[in-house]
Amino acid sequence: MMWMRFHGERRPDAPPFGRGWGTACVEEAGRRVGAAAKRRDGNRRAAGFTLIEALLAGVILAISGMTIGYGMGQAMQSARVAREYDEAAMLLDQVLTRIDIVGPERMLSLGPNEGAFSEPFDDYQWQAQIEVGELTDLYDVHVVVSWGRRRVESHTRLYDPPNARPGDVRWEDL
User: What pTM does this model have?
Assistant: First the structure.
């Protein structure tokens, strides 16, 4: 049994606009003959990807994966450095607080002027430089906390009038 299906020509019963266009295809007992069959069998171009297309997709995927991996590595490195700076700022505040409690005058005469922190901050070291300021009982305090090749520092002035702090407070006790 042979019959005609309209795919490329205008069907006679189709409305004057819209659907109804396509290529003519003759089907014979389930076998396609015509333009669709020629595309499938005549050009030998089967559906799917060629080897070049698959390789190109693989290269694009690999480059995308490497870029994402590099970005994640940089984000983790930035987070680690930010955490280190946060810890150093906390330790710097701790040293300045201890200098304020002991008193800059006593720190200037008795020390300590440098040191290291205990676990888990044993990678960090501190150094303090205290000088008598221009005005009476005013001290310039410069503290540096360093680790590796990085450092944070602070410069401040502390007012330390005589007998303002208890005399028995020591650095080691804090």
Answer: 0.64
